[in-house]
Amino acid sequence: MVKTAPAHDPQTPPVSAPAVHYLQNLSKDIPSGLVVFLVALPLCLGISLASGAPLLAGVITGIVGGTLVSWFSGSQLSVSGPAAGLTAIMVSALATLGSFEAVLAATVVAGVMQLVLGFLKAGIIGMYFPSSVIRGMLAAIGLILILKQIPHFFGADTDYFEDMDFLQFNGQNTFSAIVAATNAISWGSALIGLISLAVLMIWDSKAVKSVAALKLVPGALIVVVLSILLNLLLTNLVPSLQVRPEHLVKLPSIGSLADLTRELRQPDWTALTRGSTYLVAFTIAIVASLETLLSVEAVDKLDPHKRHTPQNRELKAQGLGNIISGLIGGLPMTAVIVRSSANIDAGAQSKFSAFFHGLLLLTSLLVLSSVLNLIPLSALAAVLLMVGFKLTKPALYRTQWKLGWEQFLPFIVTVVAILFTDLLKGVCVGLALGIFYILKANLNSAYYFHNEPSHEPGVVHIKLSEHVSFLNKASIVTTFEQLAPGASVILDGTDSEVIDYDVLEAIENFRITAAERGIHLELRGIKQVEALGH
């Protein structure tokens, strides 16, 4: 769909995003890592419980995702760890293979499969998710976060963050769990939750943000400290309102690195003699890879700097992470959008934030368990309620509506489908509808290739065809990434009748970053669009 003339020297390596200076961003990345840690800890524990795995397994996965995968990944803001979307697969895998140790062996094999997928460059599939579907996924996750946290916010649920699916393992669904919660409110938890939410809203106001010193302190940290003090106060003054033990963080008590080592599980390698092990491994590899590609694509859209994550490198990083996690007793991992969204919302600038959250998870196991076990879950639910709201703000729905039916319908269908099924099924439904609109458009406008050489020596002339759909996004973005520093580029859409919004957004992101790469860009016949974010 794209013609370039003349291209730069083919020996010139592709240009990556500008180098990130980690030390310059510590003032933002350390507080962000702390926020992600506070969100990740109960999620790691809850996903372990929901998966039927040892409680420690989810935390181990979070540590590996934070301390190892963050550096091998090409994403600056994505956070990896155990994913709620894999809980059903884990329950099935445990039933099929008979032991957690056998599942660990399957997890290692799944990691090897992901490495192979990365070297085969299978990550390019991530380029083919339309923007409307990705935004629908983000909005749906925001809604699910809000709905799922309500029972924990009111202290009416002891299984923290059981899963992200509509149908839960205990026989309830998202809405019946909320109805049940109204009949079992723990008033102490509810009071702390309401105060925590109010503090977060105040901390997010313009008045507080205008004070430079306060901007350095994450609101989640204030809420956590305040919630512990409030519960201690209630315990001494109004014992009937104190938060019950089952509504506090439950971190395993491990006193030293030697104790942690003794608690680690090892894979059962005899499971490799069974064919069912490879079927489980293949399922984990495919689902984890798809969820990862969806997550990093969504993170790139939320990134204020519009940096692009190399998908194949991400698959390799996740594969390495699953190999290590399986070897030392952890759950399968993916890049996870909930923690990544909290990371971006907290102001993270680089991958050091995810790394720091991994260090905190490790430290919490060794020395902080007694303090962290004082945190009421309702306070953490308040943090996630704020994250959920920012993912599914009403302004997002209005913006998608203004873009027309071709963007709004796949968006809203994705939201509803994910809300009432699960992440992957919902995305598949939205993707099918998005493809329908593309095929419908292709019936009205065929492709035409133009081979018009540039008349300006030394200028890269990129001429778009008559109809450019989101299917062309991957080749266009790849072309942008291969442009040499200092190049002069003319991006010509004068003969294009239709340029899909996804491609326009990719062009706008390139326009924003071109100056950082020293590229002089001239747009002809291409309207500028506002890169949507939250």
From TrEMBL:
<dbReference type="GO" id="GO:0016020">
    <property type="term" value="C:membrane"/>
</dbReference>
<feature type="transmembrane region" description="Helical">
    <location>
        <begin position="132"/>
        <end position="154"/>
    </location>
</feature>
<feature type="transmembrane region" description="Helical">
    <location>
        <begin position="320"/>
        <end position="342"/>
    </location>
</feature>
<feature type="transmembrane region" description="Helical">
    <location>
        <begin position="93"/>
        <end position="120"/>
    </location>
</feature>
<keyword id="KW-0472">Membrane</keyword>
<feature type="transmembrane region" description="Helical">
    <location>
        <begin position="354"/>
        <end position="387"/>
    </location>
</feature>
<dbReference type="InterPro" id="IPR001902">
    <property type="entry name" value="SLC26A/SulP_fam"/>
</dbReference>
<feature type="transmembrane region" description="Helical">
    <location>
        <begin position="30"/>
        <end position="48"/>
    </location>
</feature>
<dbReference type="InterPro" id="IPR002645">
    <property type="entry name" value="STAS_dom"/>
</dbReference>
<keyword id="KW-0812">Transmembrane</keyword>
<dbReference type="InterPro" id="IPR011547">
    <property type="entry name" value="SLC26A/SulP_dom"/>
</dbReference>
<feature type="domain" description="STAS">
    <location>
        <begin position="449"/>
        <end position="534"/>
    </location>
</feature>
<protein>
    <submittedName>
        <fullName>SulP family inorganic anion transporter</fullName>
    </submittedName>
</protein>
<keyword id="KW-1133">Transmembrane helix</keyword>
<feature type="transmembrane region" description="Helical">
    <location>
        <begin position="55"/>
        <end position="73"/>
    </location>
</feature>
<feature type="transmembrane region" description="Helical">
    <location>
        <begin position="278"/>
        <end position="299"/>
    </location>
</feature>
<feature type="transmembrane region" description="Helical">
    <location>
        <begin position="212"/>
        <end position="234"/>
    </location>
</feature>
<feature type="transmembrane region" description="Helical">
    <location>
        <begin position="174"/>
        <end position="200"/>
    </location>
</feature>
<dbReference type="Pfam" id="PF00916">
    <property type="entry name" value="Sulfate_transp"/>
</dbReference>
<dbReference type="GO" id="GO:0055085">
    <property type="term" value="P:transmembrane transport"/>
</dbReference>
<feature type="transmembrane region" description="Helical">
    <location>
        <begin position="408"/>
        <end position="439"/>
    </location>
</feature>
